Amino acid sequence: MTLVQEGSKSEQAYRWIRSRIQSHAFGPGYRLVLGTIAEELKMSVVPVREAIRRLEAEGLVSFERNVGARVSLVDESEYAHTMQTLGVVEGSATALSAPLLTPDALERASAINDRMQRLLDHFDAHRFTQLNRDFHTVLYEPCPNPHILDLVHRGWARLSGIRDTTFAFVPGRARHSVVEHHQILGLIRDGADPLEIELAARNHRWRTMDAFLDSRHSDHREEGR
User: Fold this and answer.
1) Closest CA to 144 of 194, 98, 190, 199
2) Which of 107, 135, 171, 183 maximizes the CB count within 10 A of its CB?
3) Distance CA 159, CA 171 (A)
């Protein structure tokens, strides 16, 4: 690691952290551990703390209760619009895929959900998020409409560029998500009406969005007291 030795140590730390936020090396939701960063930059935690406070003032970093400093979600409205759109197209893709999903595919999705269930007691938000994507990929990837499938892929790509993991912000949502996955699988196995499957998948996505936005608004109210 090469650090340009210009300005104060606080300035050096500020530019180093900021560059990693901008490059998405430190994505939204990423926890900024002062000691780890200080060790990386070969300096004390004092200038790192000063740099993080400066980034907080710029809105790039936020402090979470009982967690510490995290990279902020860049744009809440962009996140909401992306999740709303993804809910619509992913719901449609899942419904269209349902008749094409083999028993092996459904077992694979169920096994992924079981792994998510086991993570709940020793929660790893980033691993949970990856498994969550793997689960949904099994269910929507057989979609026979290439245009809808392309929109789903675009939605996931845009979402990953906006935030690293929603579950880092609202870990309590994870348990509900696992239950809803089980319900969606049940609908598909039972040959439910496609519209019922579509709405279940759409509402599942939107509930995650609502949980996140509710947590943000709650934090804002606390800060205003």
Assistant:
1) 98
2) 135
3) 18
Q: Express each pLDDT in 54-97 by its tens digit.
A: 988 877 788 877 778 988 765 678 889 999 999 999 999 999 99
- 209, 87 in Cβ contact below 8 A? yes
Estimate to the nearest angstrom the gap between the alpha carbon of 125 and the chain centroid.
8
- CA separation (Å) from 67 to 53, 73, 119, 140, 171? 15, 15, 19, 34, 12
CA distance 193 to 7: 64
What are the chain's domains?
9-71 (1.10.10.10), 76-223 (1.20.120.530)
d(CA 187, CA 147): 24
Does this model's pTM top 0.90? no
